Amino acid sequence: MSLTEINFDGIVGPSHNYAGLSLGNIASASHAGDPSYPRAAALQGMAKMRGNLARLGVQGFLLPLPRPNQALTSALALDDSAPPQLRAAPWSASSMWTANAATVSPAPDTADGRCHLTPANLVTMLHRAQEWPDTKRQLDIAFGDTRHFAIHDAVPPSFGDEGAANHMRLCESHDAAGVEVFVYGKTGGAFPARQHEQASRLVARAHGLDPARTVFIEQNPEAIAAGAFHNDVVAVANGPVLFTHAEAFADQAGAYAALRAVFPALEVVEVPSGAVTLQEAIRTYLFNAQLLTLPDGSMALIVPEECRESPSVWAWAQAMLASNNGLGGPIRQVIPVDVKQSMANGGGPACLRLRVVCDPATVDPRFLLDEAKADVIEGIIAAHWPRQIDPSDIGTDDLASSVIAARGALLDALNLAQLG
After folding, report:
1. Would you say the pTM of this structure is higher than 0.90?
2. Of 31, 148, 230, 245, which residue is the catalytic one?
3. Got the DSSP string for 147-206?
4. What is the pLDDT of residues 193-234, one digit of tens each?
5. Are 273 and 248 in contact (CB under 8 A)?
6. Contacts within 8 Å (CB) and 24+ apart, 232-235
């Protein structure tokens, strides 16, 4: 087998809207009630996918979930007397952020030598808790080769699990045995801590991870209170590199020591608070970036355009690049991408992808992107995705018909009508 890391991005769904459903997500709350632009959002996501396909030679995707969710609508007994945010929940397009789709442990790390995936239960937020059964249906198809993959059910309530957004992996190379790092929260002031320690430990046991190569770290409560609702808003790892803000963890020095104890090759790239404040890091999603290993072995950081627009973030990035390119540091490129529609709802480049280390030949090819398939998907989006959704459109029959038809056209084009 030839193992490589594949990023599976979520295609932004046709019901993409700004209902402000995510408590603790500053961007989502600040844009609540704004008009959204699903077509632009989906095309921005496709452009990011095309860029990484060109850089890495392989790229996957997951599809929008069925919306509006009629089962949830019925379960909530929704009518005009229900609060607007409750009425909006069955329309949520938040499955676009596939970093929350599942936690993934590659075959080199697991006891049975298979890649294990556990869908996130996302129980802290109603609009996300509805996702995992439909997400699992896709995972069961995309990774249906049981010789190479094991797909679990979600962690049972009430242990909150938010998936790969709170999970990191350190390794010498993607196909080598790694150290898996689970970051959990305990408190976030006015905001909930979404990743429970026991959920992380349950996933590690279910995946058959070696306890000696598994680390559990507490997220900084101040980061949660500042709006870092997931660890990947303040830290991201790739290969031997941990790219992190200085205030990411409850015990920063202790976290580094715990990681070095089991992974001596650890390279920490820490952004000090004096260079970029915690608040600015969260506002710009500097750490909600894709840290990619390029074919030449160097790394590129794919950041939202908001990072280039921030004087402090961009000054730090340019200084880091000047130092790294002169002294051999790991990150050699910082590449901004336009995902402003996703950013306005609280998700950057890293939110939009799930990393799966596997042999591409073992994945259902319908979930792997190439340029021809990208052309087809973009054509469907341009023809069927709503150009704009206003708050008053949510819940209307006209929008429901449009959204259902748009998703159906995409499923038909990709020969995945079984997910209808």
Report:
1. yes
2. 230
3. TTEEEPPPPPTTS---GGGGEEEE-SSTTS--EEEEEE-S-BTTB---S-HHHHHHHHHH
4. 899 999 999 999 999 999 999 999 999 999 999 999 899 999
5. no
6. 232/99, 232/164, 232/165, 232/166, 232/287, 232/288, 232/350, 232/351, 233/281, 233/282, 233/285, 233/287, 233/288, 234/278, 234/281, 234/282, 234/287, 235/168, 235/183, 235/287
* Residue-by-residue DSSP string for 240-266: TEEEEETTSBTTHHHHHHHHHHH-TT-
Residue indicated by tokens 């559990």 = 216
Residue 378 among the catalytic residues: no
pLDDT (tens digit per residue) in 34-46: 999 999 999 999 9
**DSSP-assigned letter for residue 333:** E
Asked if 28 and 93 count as a contact pair (C-beta separation under 8 A), the reply is: no
Catalytic residue among 162, 180, 280, 306: 162
Taking each helix axis from N to C end, the angle separating 371-384 and 38-56, rounded to the nearest 10 degrees, works out to 180
How many structural domains are present in the chain? 1
What tokens appear for 242 in the block? Answer: 């941990």
Catalytic residue among 115, 171, 351, 358: 351
Which residues span the domain enclosing 167?
A: 4-419
Residues near 55 by beta carbon (within 8 Å), at least 6 away in sequence: 292, 294, 300
Is 162 assigned a catalytic role? yes
Q: What are phi and psi of 255, to 5 degrees?
A: -65, -45
Residue 307 annotated in active site = no
Q: What is the mean pLDDT of the chain?
A: 95
What's the CATH number where 373 sits?
3.75.10.20
- Lowest-pLDDT range of 17-31, 53-67, 148-162, 273-287: 17-31
Give the dihedral of Cα atoms 379, 412, 37, 59; nearest 10 deg.
Answer: -70
